[in-house]
Amino acid sequence: MKLSRWYLFLAVLLAAVSLSFYLAQVMIFHKPQDTLFYMLQDLAFVPIQVLLVTLILNDLMVRREKKALLNKMNMVIGAFFSEMGSELITSLARYDPEFSDLAPLARPGPGWKAEDFALARRRLSETEHQIDSRRAELEDLKTFLGQKRPFVLGLLENQNLLEHATFTDLLWAVTHLTEELQFRASLKDLPPADHQHLSGDIQRVYGLLLGEWLGYAGHLKESYPYMYSLVVRHNPFDPEASVTLQ
Questions:
Q1: Of 42, 175, 184, 194, which has the fewest CB atoms closer than 10 Å, so is most exposed?
Q2: Residue among 23, 183, 191, 177 at smallest CA distance from 95
Q3: Are residues 163 and 214 in the same domain?
Q4: What is the pTM of this model?
Q5: Residue pLDDT, tens place only, 223-236
């Protein structure tokens, strides 16, 4: 990596200032041996300074920055599920003939812990969703995704999401499914091969969406219990869920 002229100038300037102080000390006190002694003593402490500053303090700062970035990303993910994610789960579930069997895995309760969310997310990821694009009206899905397309594209412009690969993959999968539906002038009487292709696109979005929803719910359970309560009462996996407290 090439150093800029500004860095070189700063390095030379700082070295010159340090040298001038050492020379001034020798000229004033006339004790070059003492000056050399303290110079070597200072140099001996440099590796410890590197250890403290570069390894320990820098590591603490990186962890703090990652935590702050994670909070920002979860705010964006929360906006996604509030705006369209939860409704999208309900829409795509109509294409899943085994949704009733799958739903109990994603019904977190007040007593769920981090390991419960991790286990449920792993089980959902291991499930092969048998999506059939002929089970529900594709035109409704096309209209819904078309309306939300500007919102999704706006999320993709968020630089914070570059650190969250799985959610970025979800947004790209949603964008692709939207384009597949939008580019078809009519979704009536599609050939079997076309239905199979769209089933694969829906399945991709569906699988990523379920995992991200559980991850987001787990984050709220840990950091924002009051928001987690609303998510549980508005669970798209629970047809009997109600936001009204009984």
A1: 42
A2: 177
A3: yes
A4: 0.72
A5: 888 888 888 888 88
